[in-house]
């Protein structure tokens, strides 16, 4: 008798979305920063001169959801790559659960929301224990759909995503993403919105030239303020003048969340700083920035990216789940499931105030004659992370190679 394996593509969609600033509760320590940085390097190599934005924490949660259904080599590769090998088997689920609980927030100043959902093919028997653990650790909503009705399924999932991300992420999937052999789609969304602890005053925003690493210049809206932030100067280890770079950490309201900006000197392209970024260095920055008054020039920016996680994860050693050898037998009894797609879409918008209705704080007026404080002038490409300062979880990581570009006549300098 001949038995044919039926391919059952599974679509993994960490989906992510982000606005602005926040706070958290009590705290496990995130251990996935090594993974986050390695993933950044994968995207950097593939990314040319483009902006980058992704959510390491969201990818970790999505992989945790897959790991729950994985066995054998599929399981081992995920644990190894995410850095969970030092934990007893299964403890990572509780860790991810505690991290998402610690980071989640919902108040007037800050919203961080995780939303996980599983869309299952009608008529397929999934292991009840898998579904139970999925709800327990990831609070995953479970819905059954008929993937052969691909247009209807795409619409259903897209509206779920749109709803979870306050409409920042639309049209994530299309009918072509599904077929009659699709069995399962995992969607993981993060939504983040917050206000700066020290907001920028819109009346201090000016048109300004931003020098890209290819030597060209674009006009952007540059925000300005002088305020108390965490700041430090670091060296890449070389003796050259260009080897010194600045790190500025700007807290969001509540002080648990912050954005860290890493800026090389004007004449140094970001590409020469990127290779030295490693997990222990993130920690060194966090531990060594000091609270002090800083003059900050930061462009308004909006970054958005849809990432094919499949190739990046394969590059990091997670290969098995994408092949017909995948062992996802904890999900169903059959051995015919594998992951066909893994996509993450992220969005981040940085403006003067962030959340609507947030209070402004009094700022000192521009004094351009005397430079009394260190000056961070982000008028050229920079690296950033948005992290939780208590758990060290990295919600977002990326770089701005091109900020929000304005046409010269959009904003009359004199009228601002
Ligand atoms: C998660 O939190 C629970 C309840 O506080 C605790 O019992 C458990 O040990 C925590 N798990 C991890 C991995 O820290
Ligand atoms: C949208 O999300 C809200 C809260 O997250 C939920 O109460 C509501 O039922 C959702 N609506 C749809 C159409 O999914």
From TrEMBL:
PANTHER family: NEUROSERPIN, SERINE PROTEASE INHIBITOR, SERPIN. The keyword Signal applies. This is Serpin domain-containing protein. The keyword Cytoplasm does not apply. InterPro entries: Serpin_CS, Serpin_dom, Serpin_fam, Serpin_sf, Serpin_sf_1, Serpin_sf_2. Residues 1-24 form the signal peptide. One of its GO terms (cellular component) is extracellular space. It holds the Pfam family Serpin. GO terms for molecular function: serine-type endopeptidase inhibitor activity. Residues 37-403 form the Serpin domain. Its main location: secreted. Belongs to the serpin family. It comes from Echeneis naucrates. The gene is serpini1.
